[in-house]
Amino acid sequence: MEKETLHCKVTVRIMTDRKAFGPGVAEILTGIRKYHSLRGAARQMGMSYTKAWTIIREAEKIWGFSLTQRHAGGKEGGSSVLTEPARIVLERYEAMSRELHELAEQKFQQYFNEEELRKLRK
């Protein structure tokens, strides 16, 4: 029997009574930053444009400010860019998430390292 490797998985979500920001919103905003398009971000995620739009609108309601600045289409099509507050929130979320993942890995190694697991398997 092949031994499976244990690991710790942490998901960071910023909440009210609803989710205000988490991996999904962060991925949409990262896609907008990269593709300058909500539609492009949604496509890259395999998500419908309507669902991505709804997620962004709900997050904007909770935060109380716009996350994207949208430019209507035309011959060239529309575009979206992150607002300055959205850029700051995304950068802080990414930094906090990195730090919490590092801390979680340290704690996982403290409590579930190979030596501790060997003791449990006896």
What does this structure look like?
- This protein has 122 residues and is mainly α.
- It has one domain: Orthogonal Bundle (Arc Repressor Mutant, subunit A).
- Helix content is 60%, strand content 11%.
- The protein contains five helices and four strands.
- The mean pLDDT is 91.
Helix-strand layout with pairing:
Blueprint: E1 14-15, E2 19-21, H1 23-35, H2 38-45, H3 49-63, E3 68-71, E4 79-82, H4 84-112, H5 114-121
Antiparallel strand pairs: 1-2, 3-4
Task: Give the proportion of residues in helices.
Answer: 55-70%
Indicate the structural class. mainly alpha
Radius of gyration: 19 Å
Mean pLDDT: 91
* Beta-strand content bin: 5-15%
Low-confidence stretches: none
> Tell me, what is the CATH class?
Mainly Alpha
Offer a concise description of the structure.
By secondary structure, the chain is mainly alpha-helical.
List keywords for this structure.
5 helices; two-stranded antiparallel sheet; mainly alpha; 122 residues
